[in-house]
Amino acid sequence: MTYTHDGIQYVAINYGVGGWPAVGLVFDLNDPSAGLGAVGAFKELARNTQMGGGLMVFALDGKGPYDDLSIGEYEM
User: Fold this and answer.
1) Same domain for 47 and 61
2) What are phi and psi of 74, to 5 degrees?
3) Is the same domain home to 13 and 25?
4) Residues 6+ apart with CB under 8 A from 41
5) What residue numbers bound the domain in which 24 lies?
6) Are residues 46 and 62 in the same domain?
């Protein structure tokens, strides 16, 4: 998704396991036929990932988060 706020364009990206493949993880299901077969189809998913996710947002204004060292943890 992309949007603008105060004249700056941003790109937002969802990450993490979700939707029907994650139904077995979310509800801790073990029957391969559960979730209309999604639990069996994605049974190896739990070995490679875990529940959770988030949203990453990037500004496309050409500035980096540490351009101004007088703010944040680098406060002078």
Assistant:
1) no
2) -100, 25
3) no
4) 21
5) 19-51
6) no
* Residues 58 and 76 reside in one and the same domain: yes
- 39 burial type by CB count under 10 A (0-12 exposed, 13-18 middle, 19+ buried): buried
Q: Is the dihedral of CA 15, 18, 19, 20 positive or negative?
A: positive
pLDDT in tens, the chain (76 residues): 999 999 999 999 988 877 777 777 777 788 888 888 888 888 887 787 777 788 999 999 877 777 777 766 655 5
Question: In angstroms, rounded to a whole number, what is the distance separating the alpha carbons of residues 39 and 29?
Answer: 7
- Global pTM reads 0.53
CA distance 44 to 37: 13
pLDDT of residue 23: 76
